[in-house]
Amino acid sequence: MNRRPEDIIATAGLDPVIQQDAEDVNEPIRRPTADDKVDHQLLYAYHHDGSMKAREQLIELYLPLVRSLARRYSYRGEQLEDLVQVGCIGLIKAIDRFDIERGVELTTYATPNIIGEIKRHFRDKGWAVRVPRGLQELNVRLSKLIEELTVQLERSPTIAELAKASGATEEEVLEALETGQAYSSVSLSSGPSGGDDDGDLDPLESLGQIEEQYAITEDRAVLAPGFAALDDRERFILHLRFFEGLTQSQIASRVGISQMHVSRLIRRSLQKIKDEIGSAE
Amino acid sequence: MSDTVSLSFPRDSRYYAVARLVVGGMAAPLEMSYDALDDLQLAISSLLDHEDLATQTPDEGAGDVRLRLEVDDSQIVAALGSFASGSLDRAFERSAKQGGEMGLRRLLDTIVDDVTVSDDSDGEWITLTKHVKALA
């Protein structure tokens, strides 16, 4: 709903309030008149007179700005309306903290506040939400397709084969695969909803099923610095990849998880080793 | 006949996905398997993520990284640079010391077919070669 600023003022009934106090000579700053910009009048009414109604009207007046900024970020997989809500928090903070004596426009002050709030929202929610939903879904589908095609073709599929099987373009396949490549520190126990697993595996359940396979404690690899940060399955997968030279497909088949999951676990394990070594220094 | 694509991007993790996507885009027409592509992308990410690899800039700060990709029917060759002189050896040594046998060099040697370090006039470059295996 977009309302004209004049309508907002009319419904807020601000003019009479402003006019009523216009004679006050002790005002530290000039009281806006009807000729001043609507937002100046509202800011004055809120900050000087404490009119909460004026605050509400300001929020409504600047909603199109929030919506326009939120739209810039909504492609990252977050619903536009959710981002508008987040952006509104930034707007409210800007309105509340605005110093009417500084003579800057509210737009100038509010824009970085709104963007900052949206960016903070993305940072707090982690990488998964930055990925457009369509790509997230394609990523999950590809994970299953890679598994199926690997069995069917008896080798790892190509991008073209994945594109054909998923009905997506090669570019979309590459982009969707990339969404799974980001390093993530989400704990294994966070499960599929943690945004790091494929959704085809309950991590704790799988540990129970194949625990015996991880008995490689005598191997030199597991004695290497940094490996202490890994769990048994991660150690086992790194051992298979880097010491036995198995491919991801072979590991996937041996451990009983998808190839894409193996890829993620390898990346995460390497990151964990790096972090462990970094923190030890 | 080979085709070459060169890319220059800031030494900032926000741009690494761009590099990986370009590698994917170059590898896709070669009918490289997902397995092999993922290995090459991991190799490049591991190098980019290695903090010991200072890019060759006047102030030795975090300057731009250049990625040169050369493809022909049989392989994709990714050259990454340029790094300050001795950077790569130091990175290999340090990661071997810290990570034992799971150092950067072992990682690269396992997941790509050839690793070459060369000294160029503008600094050090590392070249990774990944062969395209004929589809069964």
Q: What overall geometry of chain B do the principal axes of the alpha carbons give?
A: globular
Q: What is the CA-CA span between the terminal residues of chain B?
A: 24 Å
- Rough outline of chain A: elongated
The CA-CA distance between the termini of chain A, in Å, is 57 Å
Structural class based on helices, strands and sheet pairing of chain A: mainly alpha
Question: What would you note in describing this structure?
Answer:
- The complex is a heterodimer of chains A (281) and B (136).
- Chain A is built from 14 helices and no strands.
- Chain A has 281 residues and is mostly helical.
- The termini of chain A are far apart.
- Chain B has 136 residues and is an alpha+beta fold.
- Chain B has 4 helices and 5 strands.
- Chain B has a 5-stranded antiparallel beta sheet.
- In chain B, helix 1 packs antiparallel against helix 2 and helix 2 packs antiparallel against helix 4 (104-111).
- The longest helix of chain B has 16 residues, at 34-49.
- Classes of the chains: A mainly alpha (281), B alpha+beta (136).
